[in-house]
Specification:
With 354 residues, the chain is mainly beta. It has five helices and 18 strands. It has one domain: Porin (Beta Barrel), CATH 2.40.160. A 14-stranded antiparallel beta barrel has the order 1-2-3-4-5-6-7-10-11-14-15-16-17-18. It has a two-stranded antiparallel ribbon with strand order 12-13. Strand 12 and strand 13 form a beta hairpin.
């Protein structure tokens, strides 16, 4: 038995080495979004979920986790968040909706991400927009970018050898992007701008996510690369593009007892958001209280302060809970808060896990 385990570990090390070589062959993104926290359960653990990924949200978090997850899982999830420090000219808000189901070796999912960001600077506006602000100075303007993406895909999982699976989510992405200059005193005011009349430019494209999960006893180790093809969407109102930058994250989880689990994640690529450079680490715990209730908590910290933007560090703290309405039917909730760069988030979900 021991030689077999040793051979399995050697094979796993080769797979991890090959995946790491492929990952770091990718160039780091010049401008990127932080790894989004989609899924109420994952958010309640501070975003430490790549090494957990044992329900239908594995389609998003780590496609390789589908093989080691529940026999059948159905998740309906929604969340929203906002970051707008006092008197700051930088801020963002967004929302996510997720619907997915998974079985061993197969997953189907749809999710919608909506984001709006505000940053200093003006745009070269279209003639129509310029006409409405022609008597105003460009220095009075902030830049408002909006991006809505719809992702619909299928997740396929292949077992490489005992305890190790590789998953790929193949997806069609429809993006609608727009940019405009707005006259506002700060980001909070700019984010209240009515964008319903700002029609974005839609584009359909193909993309994929790749995930690797290795499970042995109480320990699970995961690796995810998202937005492999880095789709870009031309923004109405300007000649620029808004991207979905490539993201990579590794994570692990450990079942301390049958009812309690600890997890940790860390970004492998340095990225950028509206507040500057990002490289997050996250840690969380989840445990069962009795037969119906579960609780979770977590923390996420940006380890890459941007010297050009003072106070760009982000520290977010999360609390979450689940209640079993019926056997295998759960209602989840979470709230997240922290310093000025963390803002606040909340989410609700319904899960059926068998």
């Amino acid at each position: 038995m021991f030689p077999a385990k040793l051979t399995s570990m050697r094979n796993l090390s080769r797979v991890l080495a090959a995946t790491a070589a492929l990952l770091f062959h990718f160039p780091a993104a010049a401008v990127a979004q932080a790894f989004p926290v989609v899924g109420t359960r994952a958010a309640g653990m501070g975003g430490a979920f790549v090494g957990v990924a044992d329900d239908a949200t594995a389609i998003y978090w780590n496609p390789g986790g589908v093989a080691a997850g529940s026999y059948f899982s159905l998740v309906l999830d929604g969340g929203t968040g906002k970051v707008a420090p006092d008197a700051s000219t930088r801020g963002s808000d967004g929302s996510s909706y997720f619907l997915g189901l998974s079985m061993p070796a197969l997953g189907l999912g749809y999710y919608r991400l909506q984001a709006a960001t505000v940053s200093p600077g003006s745009l070269l506006l279209s003639a129509e927009s310029a006409g409405s602000t022609r008597n105003l100075s460009a220095v009075d303007e902030l830049r408002l970018d909006t991006l809505i993406t719809h992702h619909a895909g299928i997740t396929l999982v292949q077992s490489l050898f005992s305890g190790v699976s590789l998953g790929t989510t193949l997806k069609v992405v429809r993006g609608i992007a727009a940019s405009r200059g707005v006259l506002a005193a700060d980001a909070r005011e700019a984010l209240r701008t009515d964008t319903s009349e700002l029609l974005g430019r839609a584009r359909n494209t193909f993309d994929l996510d790749i995930g690797l999960m290795a499970a042995g006893g109480p320990l699970k180790v995961g690796l995810t690369v998202r937005n492999v093809r880095e789709p870009r969407f031309e923004a109405a109102g300007t000649d620029g593009e808004l991207p979905l930058e490539r993201q990579a994250r590794a994570g692990l989880s450990y079942a301390v007892t049958p009812n309690w689990m600890a997890a940790a994640d860390f970004d492998l690529l340095r990225t950028r958001d509206v507040f500057g450079e990002r490289r997050d680490i996250a840690a969380g715990v989840e445990g069962r209280l009795g037969t119906r209730a579960s609780v979770r908590t977590g923390v996420s910290i940006n380890t890459a302060d941007d010297a050009q933007i003072p106070g760009s560090a982000r520290q977010a703290y999360s609390l979450g809970a689940s209640y079993a309405v019926k056997a295998s039917v759960y209602v989840d909730g979470h709230v997240t808060g922290g310093n000025d760069r963390a803002g606040h988030q909340w989410g609700l979900a319904a899960r059926f896990v068998y």
